[in-house]
Amino acid sequence: MTQPSVPASAEGRLVKLAPWIAIASLVLVAASYVVNAMDRQVFPVVLPSIVKEFGFSLPSGGLLATIFTLGIGVAGIPSGILLDRFSRKTVMLIGIVIYSMFTLLTAMSHGFGDMFAYRALSGVGEAMQNAALFSAVGAYFFANRSLALGTLNFAYGLGGYIGPQLGAHLASSGWRTPFYTYAGLGIFIAILIVIFIRKSFTEQQEAPASLSSRALAHVPDRMVNRNILLLAVAAALIGLAMYGFIGLYPTFLQTQLHFTQVQAGFAASMFGLGALLGIPAGYLGDRFNQKWILIAALIAGCIVGYLLFNGPTNHGGQDVLAFLEGAIASGFCFVNVYSAIQRSVRPERVGRASGVFVAAFYIPSAVAGYLFSALVGSVGWGGAGLVQLTLLPIIAIIVMLFVQPSRFTNARVVESNA
Predict the structure, then answer these.
(1) Where are the alpha helices (DSSP H) in 88-225?
(2) Hey, which residues does 14 pair with through a beta bridge?
(3) What is the pLDDT of residues 221-263, one digit of tens each?
(4) 125/362 Cα distance (integer angstroms)
(5) CA atoms within 13 A on the CB side of 279
(6) Listed range (46-55, 280-289, 390-399) with the worst mean pLDDT
(7) What's the CA gap between 205 and 90, in Å, rounded?
(8) pTM for the full model?
(9) SS3 22
(10) pLDDT at 412 over 70
């Protein structure tokens, strides 16, 4: 189907779509993120089966569970640069096809080396999709950026809820089946985007004229500025904690608490259910001081992170804690750090800011599973949870104290620079 011509306003900007078309477009691109999350979250659930078949050690398995984030992180900034040269729709589609193809190849792996490469390269595609998707939605819904990004995180949570459970059931016929299934879904959603998504949705630009001169004057004129650097450090610490949990939590449940694969898949899916709170988390981020929202969320995360590996051992208790971890780490922290980084630069640099976030969040996450497994070997599961899911967020809290929300674009809460 040929895309209709895209009308432009007299100022050269793309004309906004009718509200129902914009919402429908948001739903469709968000569906691509559902599939992305399903793809990401299934590997830890089937990891014990993979380890058993190939004879991998726990540290090797932990590395494979999170190494895709290395591809995401390394490709983050280049993806931001690509967004300056090509349309967001094009970058998004290429990204979806790349990660779908390497997901397919993961199921055809013969050993550690090629599986490592396929998992890492799938992350390159995810980075391209992520940067393009979050830039497009953040720019189109500029006035309610955090809420819009929260909607995407809702989609991620939905995929994170469906992916592990469906993957655990599909894996009853072999661990490779979920990878074949999710790769096919990725290609299917890419075809739908080609047909139905207009560039007047994906290519909107945030015009400086849409901001008050006073609000824009507060925003640094440099890409590298205090808020960007501080928020990048916070993103790295949150990513290390979050992916340490995601990468080895199902293994902990199956090997230490003796959950079945299906029970572990359900508990892991509760993280995705918690991530659905990205919408209210984004709503709050648009209306209140994101700095203090993030600090409050990180304090709660320290407590939940400790209890996950040092608290209840029954199914119900773990399900509740996994839900809370998803709500805090993915729902509140991911959404608000991402939107705060976009708000830390002038409108024309949002694409590159998205790339900075992706790099800062995902490059450290690549070693999160390996670090967690190494800590398990030294101090046990409880000690590893204390270090990676409690102490790291405490450092992030300290970093957040120095962020200046008054320097954000469209800041609703203006505070002193002290």
Answers:
(1) 88-106, 112-140, 145-170, 177-196, 199-202, 213-217
(2) 8
(3) 677 788 899 999 999 999 999 988 888 888 889 888 888 878 8
(4) 13
(5) 8
(6) 280-289
(7) 16
(8) 0.74
(9) helix
(10) no
